[in-house]
């Protein structure tokens, strides 16, 4: 899994590429813990994530709590339909705003 970040206007876009599971989730959590910019909204680009395990879902919930405490917006970009289905069944979907692409961010 690869994680990168770029700043686009008022957003910090964190792009994830590869599967998010128990073997890779530490990379994502460490990135989030050390690279978030305090005053910028967070867009987590998941367009290149074909699979996310429960460990990945927990990491998303942790990110949601962190951005909420920072009082910044969180958006998920390009979430695969299979991942969206899992998020819906588990009740996670209600905590996130989903967008099709970076260009569709407000």
Q: How would you describe this protein?
A:
With 106 residues, the chain is α/β, with parallel strands linked by helices. It has a single domain, classed as STAS domain (Transcription Regulator spoIIAA, 2-Layer Sandwich), CATH 3.30.750. The protein has 3 helices and 5 strands, in the order ββαβαβαβ. A 5-stranded mixed sheet has the order 1-2-3-4-5. α1 packs parallel to α2. The longest helix has 17 residues. It is globular, with a radius of gyration of 12 Å.
Cross-sheet strand order for the largest sheet: 1-2-3-4-5
Q: State the major sheet.
A: 5 strands, mixed
How many strand units? 5
Distance between the termini: 28 Å
Question: Which second-level CATH architecture applies?
Answer: 2-Layer Sandwich
Structural class of the secondary structure composition?
A: alpha/beta
Low-confidence stretches: none
Number of helices: 3
What would the principal axes of the Cα set say about the shape? Answer: globular
CATH topology: Transcription Regulator spoIIAA
Q: What is the arithmetic mean of pLDDT?
A: 95
CATH level-four homologous superfamily name: STAS domain
Radius of gyration: 12 Å
Structurally, the number of domains stands at 1
Order of helices and strands: EEHEHEHE
Strand content: 25-35%
Q: What is the helix fraction of residues, given as a range?
A: 25-40%
Which CATH class is shown? Alpha Beta
